[in-house]
Write a structure and sequence with these properties.
Layout: H1 2-19, E1 26-30, E2 36-38, E3 45-49, H2 52-60, H3 63-72, E4 75-79, H4 81-85, H5 96-109, H6 111-123, H7 127-131, H8 153-167, E5 175-179, H9 185-191, E6 196-201, H10 204-217, E7 222-225, E8 237-243, H11 252-262, E9 263-275, H12 284-289, H13 300-307, E10 313-319, H14 321-337, H15 339-346, H16 348-366, E11 371-378
Parallel strand pairs: 1-3, 5-6, 5-8, 6-7, 8-9
Antiparallel strand pairs: 1-2, 3-4, 9-11, 10-11
Helix pairs in contact: 1-2, 2-3, 3-16, 5-6, 14-16, 15-16
């Protein structure tokens, strides 16, 4: 395997030379071998090749093959995972057939049925797993709003929920629709303020968690195992809140039409989302192992263009890229602190999958590969 390792290292060095290393030195080594260094200075990380599968994955220069080899233990990592992910451009992401199928499936089976299958893949985990890395106060799976970079994640999430509540002009006694209940962040926050929240989810784990939360806290709320497109309430809502679900609603005209139909005149929609400058900008590894489906990070200019063709008004938009970088860093650090428990209860591959996901988000937001926004919409 030594000769094959040498050939792979040379190929990687050529590829690194083609695109530049961004000043980040790193190293490769066989499990029992000496490291081969790239760049000048002390390596920020070392990739360890444990067997021929790991060697073949690196030699392919395919991001999915390398990521899956790491999940399986054919590759290991020593050092700074964020610095490793900053060099993701060394690898290619060419899987056109798998990429195309994520758009074909909804045509064959319908968007709602497809979403039920895809969302369950990510969210129908033991809630304890998510609670180990989300903020402890609210369990909110979207960005906080930070007053300073070293502020506790919990305080930043509270500030975001305060903002959402005020921006949507929600008052006690009103009826509010919460799209994507998650682990009850908005249900609990607004319910304790006398708001009648109807929370929608298509995750059975989420439904059970929120039902238990409502009963335990005596909240004037309900949760429904129901897709947003299928929701038909008896009366329109005073406001709608969407914390990080726009990414799973890529049909902007259909989504905005439902907002308009579900909202009272004068009502507002608050939403926040991760974003990208091009719609459906994702990697095959992310789609296969993190969020399956035809979802897409918010493409702001496409969203605003679709909004301009509706009676709804864009009342405000806020750039949250730095806020989301800080949020995902908090999640990633929480995940790393609980590594031993996660690997013991859910396996090493589960820890590594979310390690790549969360630290990859930190890198993406930090380098402006991905963005994030808060939006406030108004129905006149």
């Amino acid at each position: 395997m030594d000769a094959a390792f040498t050939r792979m290292a040379r190929a990687l060095e050529r590829r690194a030379g083609e695109i530049g290393l961004n000043g980040t030195p790193f190293a490769l080594r066989l499990r029992d071998g000496a490291p081969v260094a790239f760049g000048d200075g002390e390596p920020a990380f070392t990739v360890v090749v444990n067997d021929r599968r790991g060697l073949a994955a690196l030699a392919s220069l395919d991001v999915t093959a390398a990521g899956e080899a790491y999940l399986d233990g054919a590759l290991d990592l020593e050092g700074d995972v964020q610095k490793l992910l900053a060099l993701r451009d060394l690898f290619t992401n060419r899987h056109p057939l798998r990429y195309a199928y994520r758009f074909v499936r909804p045509l064959l089976f319908g968007q709602v049925a497809s979403d039920r299958k895809w969302i369950a893949r990510h969210y129908d985990e033991d809630p304890d797993f998510f609670l180990l890395f989300l903020d402890r106060r609210h369990r909110c799976y979207s960005q906080g709003v930070f007053a300073r970079d070293d502020e506790p994640l919990e305080d930043a999430i509270t500030r975001k929920l305060d903002f959402a509540f005020e921006a949507a002009r929600i008052e006690p006694g009103q009826r509010v629709l919460d799209i994507g209940g998650g682990w009850g962040a908005f249900t609990e926050y607004a319910g304790k303020r006398g708001v009648h929240v109807t929370s929608l989810t298509i995750s059975k784990q989420s439904e059970a968690f929120i039902n238990e939360l409502i009963a335990r806290e005596g909240l004037p709320c309900e949760v429904r195992l129901e897709h947003f497109f299928d929701h038909r309430p008896a009366a329109p809502y005073d406001a709608i809140v969407n914390l990080g679900v726009t990414e799973h609603l890529p049909d902007y005209p259909a989504t905005l039409a439902r907002y308009h139909a579900l909202l009272k005149p004068g009502g507002r929609v608050y939403l926040d989302a991760s974003a990208a400058r091009a719609k459906h900008q994702t990697t095959d590894f992310f789609e296969r192992h993190i969020y399956q489906g035809n979802g897409s990070q918010l493409c702001l200019h496409d969203y605003v263009a679709a909004l301009s063709r509706t009676p709804l008004e864009l009342e405000a938009v806020y750039n949250d890229r730095h806020n989301y970088a800080l949020t995902t860093r908090g999640w990633a650090e929480n995940l790393d602190r609980h590594r031993e428990e996660i690997e013991s209860r859910w396996g090493r591959a589960q820890y590594r999958k979310f390690q790549l996901y969360l630290w990859g988000c930190v890198d993406g937001f930090t380098r402006d590969i991905i963005q994030a926004y808060r939006l406030v919409l108004h129905r006149p």
